[in-house]
């Protein structure tokens, strides 16, 4: 599916809308269901306001918005080398093991899903791009990626059970400024989480269905962890997981 020259507006439907909803995952964000409703319109308005700096956002995706989406992707690149699993045994994004298998004795919910998804979810990558744009605020400075994919081999090496990082999550952090300590780091991460809740419609924790999640500060005190673990299966189809920036920006679903 490619964006063509047709405007997208409230009521539009289909794969181009789905792609749009994912591209704008970090601007408020809604579910990527291919149905351009009020949630999608709010995404477009937020993007027009925050990124395009339009004084009178229209909520309509026209040629200017398509161009801005391209510029946005170019301005905030995603370095996939930094996202690869460090285990040394997989190619960087697991081996596709354990689809529809769940941690022993646990219910069939995503938190216990053992599947090594085939890449990183596009919505989390696009959210990271938006995070980079929000972090332009000098209080933060540019974020850098600290963790992406972690397959079962890596989990075993690290004695870790969580499968969150098997394609559904990434971690980033900010550089400490001169004279700062861990507490400053923690304060900055707290503040940034607040901003992501407000601007990108993240939730802290995993209670709400179909919302992007941030790990709370008691789990991730000095870094930012974002994931799509709370989404239903239809939003975690394999087609949403990518292993290169080219794939991320290809418009193909
Ligand atoms: Zn690995
Ligand atoms: Zn994490």
Indicate the mean pLDDT: 95
CA-based gyration radius: 18 Å
Helix-strand pattern, N to C? Answer: HHHEHEHEHEEEEH
Distance between the termini: 6 Å
Percent range of helical residues: 25-40%
Can you describe this structure?
With 253 residues, the chain is of the alpha+beta class. The chain folds into two domains: 15-75, Muramoyl-pentapeptide Carboxypeptidase, domain 1 (Orthogonal Bundle), CATH 1.10.101; 80-248, no CATH class. The protein contains seven helices and seven strands. The strands form two sheets. The protein has a five-stranded mixed β-sheet with strand order 2-3-6-5-4. It has a two-stranded antiparallel ribbon with strand order 1-7. The longest helix has 19 residues, at 182-200. It is globular and about 50 Å long. The model has no long low-confidence stretch (mean pLDDT 95). The chain binds zinc ion (2 copies). Residues 147, 165, 169, 171, 225 line the site of one zinc ion.
Quick synopsis:
The chain is an alpha+beta fold. Helix content is 31%, strand content 9%.
Task: Record the SSE blueprint.
Layout: H1 15-23, H2 38-50, H3 63-75, E1 120-121, H4 122-134, E2 143-147, H5 152-158, E3 169-174, H6 182-200, E4 203-204, E5 213-214, E6 224-227, E7 241-242, H7 245-248
Parallel strand pairs: 4-5
Antiparallel strand pairs: 1-7, 2-3, 3-6, 5-6
Helix pairs in contact: 4-6
The structure holds zinc ion (2 copies).
């Amino acid at each position: 599916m490619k964006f063509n020259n047709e405007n997208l507006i409230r009521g539009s439907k289909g794969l181009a809308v789905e792609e749009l909803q994912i591209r704008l995952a970090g601007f408020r964000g809604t579910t990527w269901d291919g149905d351009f409703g009020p949630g999608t319109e709010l995404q477009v308005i937020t993007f027009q306001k925050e990124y395009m700096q339009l004084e009178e956002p229209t909520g309509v995706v026209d040629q200017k918005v398509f161009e801005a989406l391209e510029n946005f992707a170019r301005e905030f690149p995603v370095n996939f080398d930094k996202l690869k699993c460090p285990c040394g045994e997989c190619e960087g994004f697991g081996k596709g093991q354990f689809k529809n298998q769940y941690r022993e004795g646990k219910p069939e919910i995503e938190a216990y899903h053992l599947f090594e998804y085939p890449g990183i979810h596009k919505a989390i990558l696009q959210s990271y791009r938006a995070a980079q744009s929000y972090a332009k605020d000098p209080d933060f400075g540019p974020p850098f990626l600290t963790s992406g994919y972690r397959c079962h081999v890596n989990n075993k090496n690290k004695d870790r059970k969580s499968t969150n990082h098997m394609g559904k999550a990434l971690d980033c952090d900010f550089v400490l400024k001169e004279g700062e300590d861990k507490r400053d780091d923690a304060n900055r991460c707290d503040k940034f989480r607040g901003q992501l809740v407000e601007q990108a419609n993240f939730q802290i924790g995993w209670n709400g269905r179909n919302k992007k999640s941030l790990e709370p500060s008691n789990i991730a005190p000095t870094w930012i962890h974002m994931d799509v673990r709370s989404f239903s299966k239809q939003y975690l189809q394999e087609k949403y997981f990518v292993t290169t920036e080219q794939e991320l920006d290809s418009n193909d679903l």
